Amino acid sequence: MLKRLIINIAYSINTSAKYARIKTFFYNLLENSNYKYKKYFDLFMITLIFASVIILVREVKSEVSLELLFFNNYIVSFIFFIEYMLRLWVISSVTKIIIEQSEHDAMLGENFQLLKTLKEVSIVKFKYILSMKAIIDLLAIIPFFHELRLLRIFILFRVFKLFRYTKSIQTFTSVIAAKKFEFLTLLIFASIIIFVSSVLIYVMEGNNPDSPIDTLFEAVYWSIVTISTVGYGDITPTTEAGRFVAMFVIVAGIAVFSFTTSLIVTAFTEKLDEIKDIKMIDDVSKLKEFYLICGYSSVAKEVAKKLSKNSKVIILDEQKNMVEEASKDGFIALNYDPGSIDSYKKLRIKIDTQVKTILCLSHSDVKNVYTALTVRSFNKDIFILSVLINETSRNKLKFAGVNELIYEKELVGMIAKEFIGKPVAFEAIHALRSNLNGIDIQEIVINERVLSSFTTVGEIKNRKYRVILLGIYKKTDSGFLFNPQDSILLEKGDLLLVIGNVQFISDFNKYLHKKGNR
What we know:
The structure is a single chain. With 518 residues, this protein is α/β, with parallel strands linked by helices. It has 22 helices and 10 strands. Helix 1 crosses helix 5 and helix 10 packs across helix 11. 20% of the residues are buried.
């Protein structure tokens, strides 16, 4: 009866949308560094930590009001206690363990093993309780029992909680943790040196009445100060044998210090690329809008140059040399496989709101198909454009969910057919493509500011600025009008496609957005 009740409660809790919503909220608040409200929570906790330490320091030589003591010993401790219990709750799912065990036992035709389940739950929870961060959290709560004045010193452990809330400190500790074996070896070596030198200096100096070293503790203190290259000078050996030991310890201290420095430098060097990627991903996640180019080919390079003039461009490529080339060209590039779902999870971007268009520009139709399939697996609406290398892959790319295909050979054939025997036309196309003499093609968005001054195409007077209006893209009709008539009405969201000198286009754009031109 009890077992069935526990299983029913577990299923009830696990299927509750409200429970899942609350738990997700607290998990994001405590553990998810990308959650928008977590930075405010971290700032609040950091403020409490510093307030506690300031009150502790002030209490040493000054009288502190009972209100401040109550705040420090009870309110702050209670807040930390609540945080500790919430972390213990969200770190694992008890109901999930119960359900999995009950289903496992049912599948084997056995009775639900309650004791085994409770044991598994205890192991999971105690694994967290015995972790370093959880121990620091627990020690930070101890000042709650302030009747024992000595326990107030545990307020200092609240400072170590800063490791939870400061990302740079977390990065530093993760880098150091990567070399934990080397640092452990260094610690053992330094401990042996301290032990040997302490015993030696005590033996050499202990029987000398003029020596300041009278106890083994003083010998250990002198060894640590000397090997750390601090050398206060308050305790110095007086015998020749003692000074010989001192020289040995000084040399060993230099070796330990050098080894420590080289370990830290090596650790940061090895993790530098990873740290840069993390920083870059954080920057990308903060962008409002950008184009996502998958695959850095020669076509992608030209497209990225054009798009980057008016918007941000992010490039994904699984080949490290192509990522390095894209970075040298001045683009934000990440060494991720665009055909893998994990890549988009690591990016932590919102495809619906942040990405304008996904461009599959790899020189391999297979890679472009995989990229399109991957994107469509978690987003059905984003616009995907892809190059088509081989005609045989057209249906595959369409089936993968590509909205628009650009067939390079088809474009070249159309241009060649159109301009055979027209060398001047070829020169014009070449000039536009190469930006010769500062000529460029640009898009100008019609917004409310432009509409406040102009209502029709004829009113914009582009010829006055020696700018050619090639056409207008009507957002409402999703159609492009070449050489539009002067009577065409301008609407919010329309795009003007203009050709001309870069400076003339810039002046024309400023003219359009200047108030009171009509």
